[in-house]
Amino acid sequence: MQTLAETSADSLWEDISDVPKTHRIDISLIVPVRNEAGNLPAVLPLIQKIPGVSEIIIVDGHSQDESIRVARSLLPQARIIVQKGLGKGEAITFGAKIAKGNYVGVLDSDGSNDPRELYSYVDLARKGFDLVKGTRYMEGGRSYDETFFRKLLIIGAQKVANTLWGSCFRDISYGMFLMKRESLLELELQSRRHDVEWELMGEAHRRGLAIVEIPSVERKRISGRSNVKIVYDGFLIAKVVFKMFFRQIMSPHSRILRPRNPLADSPA
Fold it and tell me: How far is CA 83 from CA 108, 160, 177, 192, 238, in A?
């Protein structure tokens, strides 16, 4: 299997370089970064070729390495901002607030996400879905970067969440997604770390948004160390799962808005 570091940008895109304009939407792509200087050269050059991306927002989480310098040299046209606090969740909400596109995409900067996959995300967004989310746990998806223990924790927490929320998500914790900017801002996400995906999915489900999961292959991190802290982030995820459950019970939004299926609603 090739990694992003072993594959050139041109070869990745030779099959879809001439994407019809009718398939394009206006996307602000948010790339959270914290100490990823060693990974950015393999990731950022590919981003420019994603169909529909009109704006790239690199949100730096107070990196201690050369991440900002590397990002500026690779993508001088990108908007590079330093978030006020720390954490992926805050980076996403911070970036979404200043984004100009009608859709917001989120892509990890460690090389684990393949930017080519966003082409399929764009196609589904154009069909009317509010949120298109990657999943490693369906046919066509897998992970080369996940330990057995981490996968066990994720699947266990996910079963609890699906039971409490009345949902059937396959991969709540996966980080790459594409969402209507207006819908994302309306969720008013409070999570600041890697629990943000759980709040995102729980709140989007509660509000009846049209959500679809799409197969995704998670690659190994190219270099450096993950910013995920399993015990601490696991505790935060558990809090979010139960917070979303009680919010469903107490809020007037709960179980009133039924999720839309744009494919089922469209005329034959």
Answer: 16, 32, 20, 11, 25
Using DSSP bridges, classify how beta strands 142-143 and 131-135 pair: parallel, antiparallel or unpaired: unpaired
How much is the pTM? 0.83
Give the domain 26-253 fold: Spore Coat Polysaccharide Biosynthesis Protein SpsA; Chain A (3.90.550)
Task: Give the three-class secondary structure for 233.
Answer: helix
How far apart are alpha carbons 135 and 155 in whole angstroms? 12
The first and second tokens of residue 150, run together, are 């981490």
On whether the CB atoms of residues 205 and 130 are closer than 8 A, the answer is no
Which tens digit of pLDDT belongs to each residue from 119-176? 889 989 999 899 999 999 999 998 987 788 888 888 999 999 999 999 999 999 999 9
Strand partners, 211: 131
Q: What is the pLDDT of residues 235-262, one digit of tens each?
A: 889 999 999 999 888 875 554 445 566 6
**58 in helix, strand or coil?**
strand
- Cα–Cα distances in angstroms (integers) from residue 179 to residues 88, 128, 132, 142, 204, in the given order: 16, 11, 6, 22, 10
